[in-house]
Amino acid sequence: MIRIKLYQSVFQNEIDAMFQEIATEFEQSISNEFVQTGKLVDEYWVAFYNNEIVGTIAVLDIENKNAVLKRMFVKKAYRGKKYEISKLLLQKVFDWCHLKNMENIYLGTMSQFKAAHRFYEKNGFQKIQRNELPLTFKNNPVDDVFYKQVLKVQME
Known about the structure:
This protein has 3 helices and 7 strands, in the order E-H-E-E-E-H-E-H-E-E. It has 156 residues and is an alpha+beta fold. It has a single domain (2-150), classed as 3-Layer(aba) Sandwich (Aminopeptidase), CATH 3.40.630.30. The longest helix has 15 residues, at 85-99. Mean pLDDT is 89; it is low at 32-37.
């Protein structure tokens, strides 16, 4: 059974272990020594399959009705259509954005995450250039691919 819960600090060790497991799938490091100041996320969710943590996602309000999708990770065995963990997690972010009247959601990712790119594009995100990001976007230095999704049409 799949459940999505709000993050609790008691989950952190298992999340760290999941992140390390995912990191071994890639040649290039997926983390960095970059230390962000200020608020890191506004909301953070954890996906469980039975009692096992299998995914995470977070969102950050960066002002002017813009949000940033953060910490989107799913264990390899739980990716794809069979479980739809990514889709369930992404829906949590969309629901939160709707409640907060967000108009745009941005994300940064790494070029090596090809399957993630396909997932984002399939779910309505459009690839953009770094210079198209809002000034308040909190950039992770390892990210080199950026996406945007317009959540609602602005009225003129």
